[in-house]
Write a structure and sequence with these properties.
- One of its GO terms (molecular function) is DNA binding.
- The chain is of the alpha+beta class.
- The protein has one domain (23-78): Multidrug-efflux Transporter Regulator, Chain: A, Domain 2 (Orthogonal Bundle).
- The chain is 58% helix and 13% strand.
- A 3-stranded antiparallel sheet has the order 1-3-2.
- A hairpin with a 4-residue loop joins strand 2 and strand 3 (60-64).
- The longest helix is centred in the N-terminal third of the chain and has 19 residues, at 2-20.
């Protein structure tokens, strides 16, 4: 049983590492990446403080990881 838990832990860590390599993030990915809540992210997008792309066909917001990282380094409005 403990071995199964170890495998699950390792797979979770691998999943997190793979997510760090993504260039385009959705709201859930962005929340994990920044530590912000999804609610805060939606509020910031409404205030146009986070640059995003929007695909109206699937009603999902997308964010460029590099742009977000650059904004986090210089902009305190995210906090």
């Amino acid at each position: 049983m403990e071995n199964q838990q170890d495998v699950v832990t390792i797979l979770t860590e691998i999943k997190g590492l793979l997510a760090q390599n993504k260039k385009t993030l959705n709201v859930e990915d962005l929340a994990q990446h920044t530590g912000l809540s999804k609610s805060k992210i939606y509020k910031l997008t409404q205030q146009k403080l986070i640059p995003m792309g929007n695909n109206p066909h699937i009603r999902q917001k997308f964010f460029d990881k590099d742009t977000i990282d650059a904004r986090l380094l210089v902009n305190s409005d995210f906090a």
